[in-house]
Here is the input.
Amino acid sequence: MSDERLDQLAKSARNRGLKLVRSRVRTPGKPRFGKVGLTDASGMPVFGMDSKGPIGKTEDVGDFLRNLGAKDWGASLNVAVLPRKKKAKAKPEAANDSEPARSAKSTPPPPPKPRPEPKTRIRNAKPSDSERIAALIGLLEHQIDEKTVRRNLGKLKKSGELPLVATLDRQVVGLCGVHAMLTIHRPAPVGRITVLVVAEEARDRNIGRMLVGAAEDWSRKKGCRIIEVTSNDRRAPAHAFYRHMGYERTSIRFFKKL
Here is the structure.
């Protein structure tokens, strides 16, 4: 790749608070030749890096930066709410025996107050949230119907593991599943974030960060000393979000359908 293209990638990375790292191998054909990667400002790997340096392809890094510019999990995900202007009510015409109308120089009425910015609230999910929760889960390409969500909420309530939801003006816009798992090889339960998603229209409001923080508080109350989360390999922006939240990649997940 040309130096001009690499300079463009480096500039794109800087615009997103990241740093482009280039391989020091200059001999074509040798391992790592032409490889690049991304780190954050502190030097922590973000994408296309391993313990020895860059391993990413330039086109993959370019795709990652473009996706990172379009989405923010973290991240999760600013919708401007413009105040609605109230229509001025027409004044009734004065009767013949009423006082004469005021002159045009009289003081105009004060402008309407702007609509207050909606506040985000985190709470436990309720059965009435089932339809909205099913729609949010659909954004992750997991299809589930409202009836199944409602049934699962009933079971999770009995186990004390109701998922957390984020609301804006009483509308559910975010979901975070929580679970405390007791294992034979650890002295304390392991907290787990089982699902995390924020509606597209509510992203860039730090709702993802708020949900993760609430999940961490929930896990502490359950006696957990660590918390883990799994994320699909293709969701690169989500991986960057978790790294910025202080999470480290420690394992590879395997699963099998039964």
